């Protein structure tokens, strides 16, 4: 793992001491008196300003998958796919020791902090945010930039339009999930029944035939481990069936679907399943 090289800026003083000759008629009276040299110093270079909160960017799917970015901001009135909603400073010192920006302690900070910042920005309930296609992306300086003194992290809000494609955002998303219109536009829908070959997760503003209707908390096994496929699948069966029945025109003839968290998703922090029904 790359280690952070601690940058130390020190003042360097270069000079010669002038030795003055004594008076009294010695041969040194006519000697040339040395002239002290000029004092040279290295001017500390201040690190660049951190990213600006409220800035907009036109990022691709591949770019939000990276922990760093060099993209320049664009006008929020022009097409953009990301908006910075929070900027903070990383905690890189533990027990008096300076840690590398790519250490586990530092790398865990932006995802958690940005998730909270984006949740507060979007509004809505926990379930409404889970059922939306809006999520958070985060960035931090490169190891080299961190060596030069940059310690910021940046939280962006992005919306997923379809697999590996970001949606263009309106001029503001603040509180968007507090409104029915916002939840409908950025809701989670599908092009077919989940689990079938034609299924793709899309925004409900796009053409779709299925819609996510609710979530189900899935309990972990001993030690908060992934409970396994069978247990995760059982956790949502009754709730998803009931949600589909309530929304169906015929309570005796309806379809429903359920997505449970995989082992990989569980490890990444998703501890809930998603219920689906025909739109």
UniProtKB/TrEMBL annotation:
Septum formation-related domain residues: 54-275
Region (Disordered): 25-52
Biased composition (Low complexity): 32-44
Superkingdom of origin organism: Bacteria
Keywords: Signal
Coiled-coil portions: none
Signal peptide (UniProt feature, chain positions): 1-20
Pfam families: Septum_form
Protein name: Septum formation-related domain-containing protein
């Amino acid at each position: 793992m790359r280690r952070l090289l601690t940058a130390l800026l020190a003042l360097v003083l270069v000079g010669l001491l002038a030795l003055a000759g004594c008076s009294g008629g010695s041969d040194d009276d006519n000697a040339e008196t040395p002239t002290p040299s000029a004092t040279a110093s290295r001017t500390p270079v201040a690190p660049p300003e951190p990213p600006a909160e409220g800035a907009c960017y036109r990022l691709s799917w591949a770019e939000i998958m990276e922990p760093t970015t060099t993209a320049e901001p664009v006008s929020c009135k022009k097409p953009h796919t990301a908006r910075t909603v929070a900027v903070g400073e990383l905690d890189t010192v533990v027990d008096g020791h300076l840690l590398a920006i790519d250490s586990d302690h530092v790398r865990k900070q932006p995802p958690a902090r940005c998730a909270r910042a984006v949740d507060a920005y979007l509004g809505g309930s926990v379930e409404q945010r889970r059922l939306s296609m809006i999520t958070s992306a985060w960035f931090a300086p490169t190891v080299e930039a961190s060596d030069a003194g940059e310690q910021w992290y940046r939280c962006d809000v992005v919306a997923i339009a379809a697999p590996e494609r970001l949606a263009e955002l309106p001029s503001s998303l603040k509180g968007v999930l507090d409104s029915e219109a916002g939840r409908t536009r950025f809701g989670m829908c599908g092009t077919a029944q989940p689990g079938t070959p034609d299924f793709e997760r899309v925004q409900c503003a796009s053409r779709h035939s299925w819609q996510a209707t609710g979530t189900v908390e899935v309990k972990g096994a001993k030690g908060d481990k992934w409970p396994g496929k069978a247990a995760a699948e059982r956790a949502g069966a009754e709730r998803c069936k009931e949600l589909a029945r309530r929304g169906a025109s015929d309570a005796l003839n309806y379809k429903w679907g359920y997505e449970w968290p995989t082992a990989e998703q569980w490890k990444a922090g998703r501890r809930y399943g998603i219920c689906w029904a025909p739109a």
